[in-house]
Amino acid sequence: MSDFDFDLFVIGGGSGGVRAARIAANHGARVGIAEEYRFGGTCVIRGCVPKKLLVYASSFSESFEDAEGFGWHVPEPRFDWARLIASKDLEIARLEEIYARNLDLAGVEIFRSRATLIDPHTVELSTHGHRIRAKHILIATGGRPFVPDFPGSHHAVTSNEMFDLPRLPERAVVMGGGYIACEFAGILNGLGATVTLVYRGKRLLRSFDADLGAHVTDEMRKKGIEILTETDVAGIERDGERLTVALTNGETREAGLVLAATGRVPNTEGLGLERAGVSLGRRGEIPVDEWSQTAVPSIFAVGDVTDRLQLTPVAIREGHAFADTVFGAQPTRADHVLVATAIFTQPEIGTIGLTEAQARAEGQVEIYRSTFRPMLHTLSGRDERMLMKLIVAKDTRRVLGVHIAGHAAGEMIQMAAIAVKMGATKEDFDRTVAVHPTASEELVTMRTPLPEPAGAA
Prior knowledge:
The protein is α/β, with parallel strands linked by helices. It folds into 3 domains: 202 residues, FAD/NAD(P)-binding domain (3-Layer(bba) Sandwich); 110 residues, FAD/NAD(P)-binding domain (3-Layer(bba) Sandwich); 104 residues, Enolase-like, domain 1 (2-Layer Sandwich), CATH 3.30.390.30. 30% of the residues lie in helices and 23% in strands. The strands form 5 sheets. Strands 1, 2, 3, 4, 5, 6 and 16 form a 7-stranded mixed beta sheet that branches. Strand 5 and strand 6 form a beta hairpin. Helix 1 packs parallel to helix 8 and helix 3 packs across helix 6.
């Protein structure tokens, strides 16, 4: 008999951990998994899935307005927050059940408990103190919101709580300039709240191409969102249901809600990693090699807890690659190069590859950019424009980056990502016949590069 209860024990029931557990079990491994909250992790329970449902809900306010330009007579719409949240809850419960059922069908033993490491091969379940021995342990505990410390910071909520608010606030202050802050600012605004977004930096979405960030910022302002850059929250005071938010520029804002969308950190606190010999990185992340293995040979980690690429599909790829490598005799490295992503701001963003600044730092490039009013907004009269941008290497002619802001950008970038991943050149794009009339045809009809900026080499 083996000295181990399991060949693999997974801590964390999010997308990466569940995929790893299922694939390892399919390879014949004895697998257990522990999840202290709900299966599905950040994405399914309190992240991208419920957030996109709220994005859809918030976008209907503009759809009702736009319909009039196309001949529809729409009665005064009314929004019911409680009904939206109840419908969202039903969908999340359905998805969680699927996650758990798929684990069960694969033969994975489920433990609904917090699990911590005792040593490189032992975990302890907090519900009853039971200890389990495993030949391999996989950490897939994801990330958690980070809230900076300032007077009254405990009055702010995080993205976790946004999906269970008892009511929609009339006024909201959103702290942060990343994609979570911008997405929730759009959701709240679209559902009828008055929104002020406060960011300490100079420009929103600074990790994205500068043109994308600037374009989305302009469109957010057009929609009525107040955006204050180079400004931060200095303190929050509560008086009943009313919050008074003091800003570093000396101004104040009254609000019913303050959302701290100020970043996420790896969820490693209290897991016993140091006790098992795993040292953490500067941000609390678990350092791993290209095989997702830590410095302790029996312990692996995938997903946001490693702070590599914080994207659900990446965590799934990492979990699958780990299981194929360790249990399937199929050595596989997760590919972190040229990963497309979509941001569900309003307008939404789809992007893959290098930003213009990154590409210029590597060599000479040509920039193709177009902004235009999409057909959707011609009859509606809405003042909203789309942005399409291609970044091309001058010597190889390869398309190094594709950046889109506008309706259905996420759907478009998935297809463009295939071409970029295959190494398509600008001429490959040019040879592709446009699909007319669509917004995406702009990707294959831009012919004239922008003039080189003054002082460019």
